[in-house]
Design goal:
The structure is a single chain. The protein has 17 helices and 23 strands. It has 584 residues and is an alpha/beta fold. An 8-stranded mixed beta sheet has the order 8-7-6-3-5-4-17-10. It folds into 4 domains: 194 residues, Pyruvate-ferredoxin oxidoreductase, PFOR, domain III (Pyruvate-ferredoxin Oxidoreductase, domain 3, 3-Layer(aba) Sandwich), CATH 3.40.920; 176 residues, 3-Layer(aba) Sandwich (Rossmann fold); 68 residues, no CATH class; 118 residues, Rossmann fold, CATH 3.40.50.
Length: 584
């Protein structure tokens, strides 16, 4: 919505082109320049599943306040070319005042883009780039976008110089000339879309992706070994961890497949190293048997699942929340374990650190459910606080004078774990039902006692208030509605609640971070007094809704809004759901 003096408190722009045209690089430069200028922002990307070529779009939103999701509509669209644009046109609807800039040699604007003929302008980006030795159209696009939204020449030049310096002085100079040329082309548009001046702050801000944040949180939580096989959209977790672990005395191994990677981290953790792997849905499916092994043998591990559209290969480059069922119920037999989900890119740091802490403290498997929209989004965030959670498992200190019972039945279900080589600490760890010493057993009592032990330690652990984010700073007391979500749906829901609050509609947020075990009493307490609750999720079958109903009777009137990917549920859609309910 426009603010005073013909400026906007939030601007959304898209830079599109075929694979290799540099659209994503252009978007990253705009976002980084905005960060250096004091704004907040987020960049998502829309790409096809092709290894090379195909379509690519940088989707950027900038604002004077924290943003966790994209806006409903786009104010500016710059097309380097229109190749395959129809594949993602629905993901970037234009606002009525939206401006489209495209190269006349690229052809007509596709009808799917919106057909706002009065707001379409031609700029010969290709010809302009040819006039500059080494020039590229994407740098022309950066200059145009910067001029239109109000980014300074200095801020853009600093980022371009830093990003291109490794390629040599000639490339830097070509990029700088392209920026100036691009800015000069759009003087007549510069009064249309201006971003409000940022609020001055001395606080440091970070530019980080969800995948990088997961890696950082994991290392901060004590992870010192990782093994994984690359898979979209989780690979960046591994790319970040590889150099980071080497700096803290750890290591990362690229395994030959997902089965090897999870078994490697089980082995490393058995040896005393807090360990992690990262994958996506197809990889998690392969890891299920080994997850049961870690649970039965009580070896702590963390498995990060950056979810994508499924089933099978699905849509590797798009987001969905549809791995919830396999994460919670996937193991055969009764295998209680931990499932957590970050609620924003910045929350990926905390949730990853917490997942390591939970796995180590309870000697069990913890699954962290991120998704493509969180993992590959690059966001400007406030510098996170330093949290005290650090991996700390109960260790057997060694005593040759007494028998070591690795799986001793204890009040809290957690028994001391011996590190290989500990005097008197020899034991067998495998997936067979065992007695307290770890020796294989097929007796009913051992089977029952070990089941009870593993269930007790998960059910009785003190998770504190971290299991969910509850409340709404815009509602002092009472609420007309509650919106119940998990994971990446928290971002658009927060924005929807703010919009509704400005209309006088009070809405409470319950965003679940801990999905398993299900904490029934805190959950029902959070919903106490709620007459109308809207459940929102990004799945086709309503997995979250079905899971909640399987755990307890949901109070009051319930409505359910859900759909699969690839088109993400936005804040405005959630607003419309509440408005319609209120008026019905």
């Amino acid at each position: 919505m426009p603010a005073a003096e013909n400026s906007y408190e939030s601007i959304s722009l898209a830079i599109i082109g075929s694979g290799g045209a540099g659209a994503l690089t252009a978007g990253a430069i705009i976002l980084e320049a905005a960060a250096s200028s004091g704004w907040y922002g987020i960049m998502n990307r829309s790409v096809g599943p092709q290894i090379r070529g195909g379509e690519a779009a940088a989707l950027v939103r900038l604002a004077n306040h924290r943003v966790d999701c994209m806006n409903k509509e786009y104010d500016l669209l710059i097309a380097i070319d229109w190749k395959n644009a129809e594949r993602f046109a629905s993901e970037m609807p234009l606002a009525k005042h939206g401006l489209v800039l495209s190269d006349p040699t690229a052809g007509e604007v596709p009808t799917e883009i919106g057909g706002l003929q009065s707001n379409i302008a031609s700029v010969a980006m290709k010809d302009l780039a040819k006039e500059i030795p080494g020039g590229r159209e994407n740098m022309i696009a950066v200059g145009m976008a910067a001029a239109i939204i109000g980014l300074s020449l200095e801020s853009i030049m600093d980022i371009v110089t830093a990003k291109l310096s490794k390629k040599g002085g000639e490339v830097v100079e070509a990029g700088r000339k392209c920026i100036v040329t691009g800015m000069a082309q759009v003087a007549k548009f510069t009064d249309q879309l201006k971003l409000q001046n940022p609020e001055k702050t001395d606080a440091g801000r970070w530019l980080i992706t969800g995948n990088e944040a997961v890696g950082y949180g994991a290392v901060r939580g004590g992870i010192r070994f990782a093994a994984a096989y690359p898979i979209t959209p989780a690979t960046e977790v591994l790319e970040w961890l590889a150099p980071a672990l080497s700096k803290v005395g750890g290591a990362l191994v690229q395994a030959e497949d997902e089965l090897s990677s999870i078994n490697m981290i089980i082995g490393a953790s058995f040896g005393g190293r807090a360990s992690i792997t990262a994958t996506s849905g197809p990889g998690l499916a392969l890891m299920v048997e080994a997850l049961g092994l870690a649970t039965a043998s009580e070896v702590p591990i963390v498995v990060v699942d950056v979810m994508r559209g499924g089933p099978s290969t699905g849509i590797p480059t798009k987001s969905e929340q549809s791995d919830l069922n396999i994460a919670i119920h996937g193991c055969h037999g009764d295998a209680p374990h931990i499932v957590v989900a970050p609620l924003s890119v910045s929350d990926c740091i905390f949730t990853a650190q917490w997942a390591v802490y939970l796995a180590e403290a309870m000697q069990t498997a913890a699954i962290l459910l991120s998704d493509q929209s969180l993992g590959q989004a690059r966001v400007i965030i406030d510098k996170p606080a330093n949290i005290a959670f650090f991996a700390k498992r109960k260790i057997y200190q060694g005593n040759r004078e007494e028998t070591y019972n690795r799986y001793a039945i204890t009040a809290d279900g957690i028994s001391p774990m011996a590190i290989p080589g500990t005097p008197g600490g020899q034991y067998t760890a495998d997936g067979l039902t065992h007695n307290v010493r770890g020796a294989p057993s097929s007796t009913e009592s051992d089977h029952r006692d070990q089941h009870d032990k593993r269930e007790r330690k998960i059910a009785n652990f003190d998770y504190g208030d971290h299991w969910a984010d509850i409340g709404n700073p815009d509602v002092d007391a009472g609420s007309d509605f509650t919106i119940l979500v998990w994971g990446s749906m928290a971002g658009p829901t927060r924005e929807a609640i703010h919009t509704l609050g400005c209309e006088g509609i009070k809405v409470k947020l319950v965003a679940m971070r801990l999905l398993a075990p299900f904490l029934k009493q805190p959950f029902l307490a959070a919903l106490k007094g709620c007459d109308r609750t809207l459940i929102v999720e990004q799945t086709h079958s309503g997995q979250f809704h079905n899971y909640l109903r399987s755990q307890c009777d949901l109070p009051g009137e319930i409505r359910h809004f859900h759909r699969p990917g690839p088109h993400l549920i936005g804040a405005q859609e959630i607003v419309d759901q509440i408005r319609d309910w209120k008026n019905s």
